[in-house]
Amino acid sequence: MAGLTDMEELITTVHDRDVADFLKEAFICYGTGAHRACVVLTHIALFDSLRRKIKAIAPVNGTAKAVSDEIEALAAAQRVFETPLIQKLKAAGILTHLEAQILEQLNSQRNKAAHPSGHTVTAEEARFVFAEAVKKFISQPVRETSYIVEAVIGRFGDQNFFPSSNVPDMVAVLGQELANLDPAAKPFLISRVVQSLDNADATIAGNARNFLLAFVARRETADRDLIIKGLVIPKSSDTKLAELFSMLVASDPFLFSSLPLAIKLRIRSLLMLNATAVGVGLPYQQLRHPARVLGACVSELGEAFVVAELKEFSDWVVALAPYTPELLQTLAHAPDLFSRLFENYVTRAASSQWATSNPFAAAVPALDVPLAALITDEQAFQLLAAIKRGAEWSGHGPLALTNSAFATLPALKAKAQSFAAVDPARATAVLAAQKVVTDLAEFLSEHLA
Predict the structure, then answer these.
(1) Can you tell me the distance from the alpha carbon of 246 to that of 368, in angstroms, rounded to the nearest whole number?
(2) Are 312 and 273 in contact (CB under 8 A)?
(3) Which of 167, 219, 294, 426 is the most buried (most CB within 10 A)?
(4) How far apart are CA 416 and CA 211, in angstroms?
């Protein structure tokens, strides 16, 4: 009698009383040995339950409404609706492919039981149909794939959808929004979000962009594949998305390294397009900052990959020598890129053009500690000598640094002092190489004492 007990317990999991009544009749039939009737009544309960659930969400879900309207019309005309219902629910993403297969199997078993076919329904088959129908469908809420997706998209017009532009905060919002979304719905979700990027409403388009940023920032392997297939590949030629793709690569550099070659070439072009559009004067914290993109790629993918796969982009960023302490820390394990960046710093420091030397002089105090941690004592001396050369061109920024005896550069100054004390001959050669007019003794007494 274990089968009877299990079936009776399953009925208690069904909250729709009308559907539960059908199941009770099916259960009674099973208990009397009427297994064929049990299968037929279970089938009625199953598809009646599906119709009710789809109809219930139709008022708030356009996809469900379209399905419900067609199925209700068939039912009202007393036409067969079960197979069309399965097909439409699968096409709408409300059922997975596997669930649709199970329903088709249950529908087939009902047809064999209800019509003369020579098929004998056994007790085991009746129990199986009953259990599958109740456990996997009748007792479960309808899979809310399209409902949840459309509900999320529908809120993109809310200016407070993402209350903060901080990426961790946006990731938290995203997690809440997708808490009840079945993973099978994610491709549909990405498709709808990507469509919203082109919306004429700036709020909707902006929330779609932030949604994708948060989605990528989670760095989940399966999600990365979805973004590549649903966004990167179809949109890689869209120059309007250059900034977005730069931000996505900064959020997850593995997104770039996972791309097919042709798509990778297009994204390289978009990274350059964004770089030339925004420059390097932004705060480093902004994901669209070219130096931020470069730093993220170096940190995650390594210098060898960046030099090989992003040469034009990395050369461009290094040539503009952004004055960002965070980038210096990132390049600690990228000796080639850092060496070229440092040489650009030296060139800028010694420039006769005030428009070049003054901005460097203004920025270098913030670079003092991270820069000193990465360079040799000789390089520190070389940089201060270059600043002195810039001062000799009367640049007010370099003059302020030298006149204060490099007081705002204590870490670099200490390293330069050490070098001059250990190797004065080489220090003299460095001053000569930088074409500094002052000799070593005067340089030490006036600026490094």
Answers:
(1) 29
(2) no
(3) 294
(4) 49
Nearest residue to 41 via CA among 120, 136, 88, 106: 106
- The structure tokens listed for 293 are 């993109």
Quote the CA–CA distance of 175 and 314 in Å, as a whole number.
Answer: 34
What residues does each domain of the chain span? Answer: 2-141, 144-218, 236-320, 327-449
Mutual angle of helices 97-114 and 35-57, in 10-degree steps: 140
Q: Where are the alpha helices (DSSP H) in 350-448?
A: 354-372, 377-392, 396-403, 410-422, 424-433, 440-443
Residue with tokens 């139709």: 58
Helix (H) or strand (E) holding 306: helix 303-309
Q: Mention every residue, 6+ apart, whose C-beta is less than 8 A from residue 376.
A: 415, 419
Neighbours of 193 (CB within 10 A): 22
> What is the full per-residue pLDDT of the chain (449 aa) written as tens digits?
446 778 999 999 998 888 999 999 999 999 999 999 999 999 999 999 999 888 877 776 677 788 889 999 998 998 989 999 999 988 877 788 888 999 999 999 998 888 777 788 999 999 999 999 999 889 887 655 566 787 889 899 999 999 999 999 999 999 998 887 767 678 888 999 999 999 999 999 999 999 999 999 999 998 999 999 999 999 999 999 999 999 999 999 999 999 999 999 999 999 999 999 999 989 999 999 999 999 999 999 999 999 999 999 999 999 999 999 999 999 999 999 999 999 999 999 999 999 999 999 999 999 999 999 999 999 999 999 999 999 999 999 999 999 999 999 999 999 999 999 999 999 999 999 999 999 999 999 999 98
The vertex-161 CA angle with 160 and 166, nearest 5°, equals: 85
Report the distance separating Cα 108 and Cα 408, nearest Å. 82
By CB neighbour count within 10 A (0-12 exposed, 13-18 middle, 19+ buried), where does 159 fall? exposed
Measured distance CA(81)–CA(71) in Å, rounded: 6
